[in-house]
Design a protein that fits this description.
Blueprint: H1 3-33, H2 46-53, H3 57-60, H4 73-78, H5 85-99, H6 118-128, H7 131-138, H8 143-159, H9 170-180, E1 185-189, H10 196-207, E2 215-219, H11 224-237, E3 241-242, E4 261-266, H12 297-306, E5 308-319, H13 330-339, E6 343-348, E7 361-367, E8 384-389, E9 395-398, E10 401-403, H14 406-420, E11 435-439, H15 440-445, H16 467-498, E12 508-511, E13 516-521, E14 526-527, E15 536-539, E16 544-545, E17 548-549, E18 555-558, H17 564-567, E19 574-577, E20 587-589, E21 600-601, E22 605-610, H18 617-626, H19 628-633, H20 646-650, E23 653-656, H21 659-699
Parallel strand pairs: 1-2, 1-4, 2-3, 4-5, 6-8, 15-21
Antiparallel strand pairs: 5-7, 6-7, 8-11, 9-10, 12-23, 13-22, 14-18, 15-18, 16-17, 19-20, 19-22
Helix pairs in contact: 1-8, 1-11, 9-10, 9-14, 16-21, 18-21
């Protein structure tokens, strides 16, 4: 079962554990109160005490869900080893929904399916029943909430592109919250995913001495599965939110038509072309211009502005293409936003912050009133736009993911709020290479280009450039990489030495088509420039070499009229060159995953999608590569024009061990390949380190 399905199994059980724990804690407390003669709850008889303990209102008044007897976590724990545990969990979910109308249609109820064995479910129940989890929760530590967020992040990482539909990384959300500072008022997210913006907003309020009741939460989400995730995520934190009676498309079924929010925070899907804009040409929300049907970026901005209060502020994550887009009326909309003084600040973010977005992204902050007359005093910022270049911030947590530190968050948020003139944030000043406040006339003179580096002065290398700091930074990255690599190499060495192969195991013969869910040629590309807001990478046969996929020779294409979604690369797809002198038959496995625009292949490359129910994808990729010569020999055609059809490729005969053996060996292969990729990254890091040394010598600041 892949992460997209498994997350609902885990998160649903975690939610069930949470509501049961809260119910039992309230039940225990009431049991103490009804026996305490000094308490307003004191009851002299057993019958009266039982009546209080069974009074649903005593629980719901404290924000505790009612969990009927027989369906509580303790009941499931007792039955964890029973063969019908799946049916019992489904029954518990149905009972909790039935007793709590706000949860109707929210909880997963498919635990009785065949692929979820009693051993698997029982193991999860035992794991979530650990005493330390319950003890910490009773002490007021938000352990289950943290575990829920941890799983959301891990599942988002594993799902790659699809993960971005329900989870925005915590450091990005924290930056938005720290910059907007939603102390009190109405908070809105029209594409709320799993509700992470609301969770961080509530944390911000409480960490600054406020109460969660100081903010009112409104949201909308069009994906029904993600909407349910948000309902559970907020319920597990005790956050009351109006996410609508059901899921709905913000553009075509606005569930909060009369809402005017004080704060809007959102990470909408980038560059979507199928948002139905052609049906909304005369919509009153398009005050600054009608957004193009082929790209919803400026539709999102105007939809949010429509819902913003007269003195409210909004922060939105968008792909960098929106900063300069000129086609289909987008430049005119941006010009109108700037000339009407709606744009307050633009922040360029570093790469690799998102699990699902490889495109460079920026934060947009818009407001309807820069005069400073809002509920929180600000200085008059009319006619000014703040630009911040934060692309140098953050640290790599892994090869594919970067996080922003608390210092990074403070550097950007303090810059923004000191520029706005908030009390206690210090005085603002331009910092070469990092931030600048620019008159809107200057932005107009720059053809309404909102790219921060277009306006920020570069810091001179001999005036403000710290060669020692640059060297120490590069050296620190190199040492950190070597330490992590050394630990990984020791672990891999031990695993390799312990690896045993049963020479007596029977091998089974399969055709490639029997162990793959798809074997298709790539698309016919329509090449374009990478700056095109709809551009997607397209891999050609030059990219497939030595078992690896290199993006260096790849090009960019506009989406084809059909077929892109099916042929968008998924992690562990196997690529096979189907044509080309000297390249025919080469194979490689696609191991990337952090992209927002789909990556696909051109028609000279075939995509083989392994069926993980039949074969380990990593093992299969190595087995297919071992057959490269045989694959080349299967091609048909005249000299120089030979090509390999998908049907011929599907007939490739492979001899494979059992799935268990494949998975055991494949897991080790995957670790080895990941270390190989890390070594390639280290090569680039060493070049950076050498350059830093030479710059230090050239600066004349060498210290002995």
């Amino acid at each position: 079962m892949d992460a997209a399905e498994y997350k609902h199994v885990v998160l649903g059980l975690l939610f069930l554990k949470y509501v049961s724990d809260k119910f039992e804690a309230r039940h225990t407390r009431l049991g103490e109160l009804v026996k305490d003669e000094g308490s307003d709850y004191y009851m002299p008889t057993h019958e009266a005490r039982q009546a209080v303990l069974g009074d649903r209102d005593e629980y719901t008044a404290e924000g505790v869900f009612w969990v009927p007897e027989g369906y509580r976590w303790a009941d499931l724990r007792k039955a964890a080893k029973q063969t019908d545990i799946g049916q019992r969990i489904d029954a518990a979910m149905e009972a909790i929904e039935r007793e709590n109308p706000s949860l109707k249609g929210v909880l997963p109820k498919n635990y009785a399916r065949r692929e979820l064995t009693p051993a698997t479910l029982g193991g999860l129940i035992d794991t979530f029943s650990r005493d330390d989890l319950a003890a910490a929760e009773h002490e007021g530590v938000d352990v289950l909430g943290r575990v829920y967020e941890y799983f959301l992040a891990q599942f988002a990482s594993n799902e790659g592109k699809n993960g971005g539909e329900f989870y925005t990384p915590r450091s990005v959300v924290s930056l938005l919250v720290e910059m907007l500072r939603p102390y009190n008022g109405r908070v809105f997210d029209p594409c709320c995913g799993s509700g992470g913006m609301f969770v961080q907003a509530e944390h911000f309020v409480e960490s600054h001495g406020g109460s969660r009741n100081d903010i009112s939460v409104f949201g909308q989400e069009r994906n029904p599965t993600t909407w349910r995730l948000a309902k559970m995520n907020l319920a597990i934190r005790g956050i009351e939110a109006n996410l609508g009676a059901e899921w709905g498309d913000s553009f075509h079924n606005d569930l909060h038509p009369d809402l005017r929010a004080d704060f809007i925070m959102a990470n909408p899907p980038f560059n979507i072309s199928d948002w139905g804009g052609e049906h909304l040409a005369d919509d009153p929300r398009w005050r600054f211009g009608t957004p193009p049907p082929g790209n919803a970026n400026y539709a999102w901005l105007q939809h949010m502005l429509h819902h913003l209060s007269p003195t409210g502020t909004m922060g939105v994550v968008l792909a960098n293409g929106a900063l300069t887009a000129k086609d289909c009326g987008q430049e005119a909309i941006r010009r109108n936003l700037i000339e009407n003084d709606m744009v307050e600040c633009i922040v360029s973010l570093p790469s690799k912050l998102f699990y699902s977005k490889a495109l460079p992204v920026s934060l947009w902050f818009l407001t309807k009133d820069k005069s400073g007359r809002g509920r929180v005093p600000h200085r008059d910022r009319r006619g000014q736009i703040l630009f911040v270049d934060a692309t140098a911030l953050g640290r790599l947590e892994s090869r594919t993911h970067r996080v922003l530190s608390d210092d990074d968050l403070s550097a950007v948020s303090t810059t923004f709020n000191s520029w706005r003139g908030l009390a206690g944030q210090g005085s603002y000043r331009d910092v070469p290479g990092f931030c600048i406040s620019v008159p809107t006339e200057s932005v107009a003179a720059a053809e309404y280009n909102l790219t921060p580096i277009r306006h920020i002065r570069v810091a001179p290398e001999r005036d403000g450039y710290d060669p020692h700091g640059a060297l120490n930074g590069s050296l620190g990255h190199a040492i950190d990489h070597l330490e992590r690599a050394a630990s990984a190499y020791v672990s891999l060495s031990e695993k390799l030495q312990a690896l045993t192969i049963d020479s007596g195991e029977d091998l089974n013969s399969f055709r490639l088509s029997e162990v793959a869910t798809m074997i298709r040629r790539g698309i016919t590309p329509r090449y374009c420039e990478p700056e095109d807001p709809e551009a997607s990478r397209v891999i050609n046969q030059k990219c497939v070499r030595d078992g690896r996929v290199s993006l260096a020779p790849s090009r960019w294409t506009q989406p084809p009229k059909r077929g892109l979604e099916e042929r968008a690369l998924q992690r562990f797809d196997i690529l096979v060159n189907s044509t080309g002198v000297g390249t025919l038959g080469r194979t490689a496995q696609w191991r990337g995953r952090d992209t927002v625009a789909p990556i696909t292949c051109d028609s000279h490359v075939s995509i083989v999608r392994p069926d993980s129910r039949m074969v380990d994808p990593t093992y299969l990729a190595i087995a297919v590569r071992l057959a490269e010569q045989e694959i080349e020999d299967m091609a048909a055609g005249s000299t120089g024009q030979t090509e390999l059809s998908p049907s011929a490729l599907g007939s490739l005969e492979l001899r494979l061990p059992s799935l268990v053996t494949q998975q055991r060996i494949g897991a080790l292969f995957a670790e080895l390949l990941d270390q190989g990729d890390a070594a390639i990254d280290f090569g680039a890091l060493t070049q950076e380190l050498c350059l830093a040394y030479v710059r230090l010598v050239d600066s004349g600041q060498v210290q002995g």
